[in-house]
Design goal:
- By secondary structure, the protein is mainly beta.
- It has a single domain, classed as TolB, C-terminal domain (Neuraminidase).
- The protein contains 2 helices and 32 strands.
- The strands form 9 sheets. A 5-stranded mixed β-sheet has the order 6-30-29-26-25, with no helix packed on it. Strands 1-2-21-20 form a 4-stranded mixed β-sheet, with no helix packed on it.
- Strand 3 and strand 4 form a beta hairpin.
- It starts with a strand and ends with a strand.
- The N terminus is likely disordered.
């Protein structure tokens, strides 16, 4: 899914990978630079997507590949979800956050437990919430304070544990964070630059810079003022895997436990060689399928529309690439399922989609719902918190 604004475009782009036998991309990898150099014809290697090629379409029903659960998120005066605030889920808790009500904690069935909002200018307070990750074992919640250029650590009740600077200044702020291991956080800064930060004091432990031989300007500027921009979630937030998307190299990589790069998929032509660049990232996977999204750097300021996107599927049983058709839901007639809808700190193999209460109320009145979702919608009001759709991929 993607949001388009005249000043900024936000596209949810997470990553995944798998074995394939398409032509491969030669990738030169060092700690300083990674660059796709050519596409030889070899029978073994990572799959390559040609964005100039027309692929056949493939559609399916989500229940064919996954078990689906619905959790209505309870509402109180202090726990108000706008829609896309989900940050974390495990077997016991669902956690969301927004600038209005702060951090909101529910149990696994959606019952509101408590919230905290420690926004301010004090030493134990954050200026902004730009994503968070939570370690259940240590009861540590890491909140990325983008505006304050810090990371604040709290327990689940909101008690402050510590804070530390990320060590970057000016425009070089940490955009995304996730837990890498017991000692470090993985952070994305900007311009294909990733760092490992100490969970104790924020010290930079390692870094990875992926840059092509030509700097790619993602912004589109309008004559007389105004601009549009492509924004990406540059890494998968699923627990148990560390996968990053590099728009400069047109390649998806897995980060190994020792912070080395393992190429998973490439795209041709290279974005830096195209008159109108097209960027790619993985958006999900099942045991059989890989999901890929591409976005074209194109925007109409008069219509305020642009950055057209195309979704693709790689079938790992025969390594064929398809343009993704529709992914339907047996429980909701007319609903389009997006595996990449929410890029939250969630267990591997689980994808999440948030459904507005107002949309469900309307669908219920029109007779478009069935099963458990119909039962839930019958009790909803239009201004209730959303219903979380939990997609559990079958092994």
């Amino acid at each position: 899914m993607k949001k388009i604004h005249a000043l900024c475009l936000c596209a949810i782009l997470c990553a995944c990978g798998g074995n394939a036998k398409q032509p491969v991309a030669d990738v030169k990898a060092t700690n300083e630079k990674v660059q796709v150099t050519k596409i030889p014809s070899k029978p073994e290697g990572i799959p390559v997507l040609d964005v100039n090629k027309k692929y056949p379409k493939k559609s399916f029903c989500i229940q064919d590949i996954a078990d689906v659960e619905y959790v209505p998120l309870g509402i109180t005066d202090d726990i108000l979800w706008l829609r896309r605030e989900l940050e974390y889920m495990d077997d016991d808790h669902i956690i969301g956050a927004n600038s209005k009500t702060g951090v909101m904690i529910h149990d696994r069935q959606g019952k509101p437990l408590h919230h905290f909002h420690r926004q301010g200018g004090g030493p134990e307070e954050y200026k902004s919430i730009f994503g968070l990750c939570y370690d259940k074992k240590t009861d540590e919640m890491f909140i990325n304070d983008f505006m304050g250029n810090k990371i604040h650590v709290y327990d689940l009740k909101g008690n402050h544990k510590r804070s530390f600077s990320t060590g970057f200044g000016g425009q070089n702020r940490v955009n995304e964070i996730k837990i890498f291991n017991d000692e470090t956080l993985l952070g994305y800064v900007q311009d294909d630059y990733w760092v490992l930060l100490s969970r104790t004091n924020g010290k930079k432990m390692a870094e990875k810079s992926l840059r092509a031989d030509k700097v790619i300007n993602l912004r589109i500027r309008k004559e007389g003022g105004g601009q549009a921009n492509v924004g990406m979630d540059m890494m998968s937030h699923q627990r148990g895997e560390h996968i990053i998307s590099s728009y400069a190299t047109d390649t998806i990589f897995r980060l190994t436990p020792d912070f080395k790069l393992q190429p998973l998929m490439a795209k041709i032509p290279a974005s830096r060689s195209m008159e109108v660049p097209v960027f790619m990232a993985y958006t999900g996977q099942t045991p059989r399928y890989l999901f890929v999204n591409t976005i074209k750097k194109e925007y109409d300021f008069d219509k305020q529309t642009g950055y057209p996107s195309v979704d693709y599927i790689v079938d790992k049983t025969d390594n064929q690439i398809y343009e993704r058709g529709s992914i339907t839901n047996n429980d909701y007639q007319g609903q389009e399922v997006y595996m990449e809808d929410i890029n939250a700190d969630q267990p591997s193999g689980i994808y999440l989609q948030s459904i507005r209460a107002s949309s469900l109320v309307e669908a219920y009145e029109k007779g478009k719902l069935s099963g458990k979702l119909k039962e839930i919608a019958s009790k909803l009001k239009e201004d209730d918190n959303p219903v979380l759709m939990i997609i559990k991929l079958r092994k």
